[in-house]
Specification:
This protein is α+β, with helices and mostly antiparallel strands and 86 residues long. The protein is 16% helix and 41% strand. It has a five-stranded antiparallel β-sheet with strand order 3-2-1-5-4, with helices on one face.
Length: 86
């Protein structure tokens, strides 16, 4: 069975989308058009929406998945930091 790659996107319908450290801000367009334009871009990259986690009346996390590609796994996770007692 193949592996899945996941992407979590934060959408604030007041005018901001945040995904993997990149911010997208609303321009001169309607809020629904702003979100649709961004989500259509993910669809063109074969990301499929699999879940929505509402946070407030104006924001939510959108969870996407697609079959894993080599480029999905090239980014290393940040190293865990451990504090040592003084």
């Amino acid at each position: 069975m193949g592996q899945w790659a996941y992407k979590v996107v934060y959408i604030d319908y007041r005018g901001r989308i945040s995904c993997e450290g990149e911010e997208t801000l609303i321009g001169n367009e309607r809020r629904s058009g702003f979100a649709r334009r961004y989500l259509n871009g993910l669809g063109r990259e074969n990301w499929e929406l699999v879940g929505i986690q509402p946070l407030t009346a104006n924001s939510a996390y959108y969870i996407f998945k697609r079959p894993g590609q080599e480029s999905d796994y090239t980014q290393e996770a940040p190293a865990a930091t451990q504090e040592t007692p003084a």
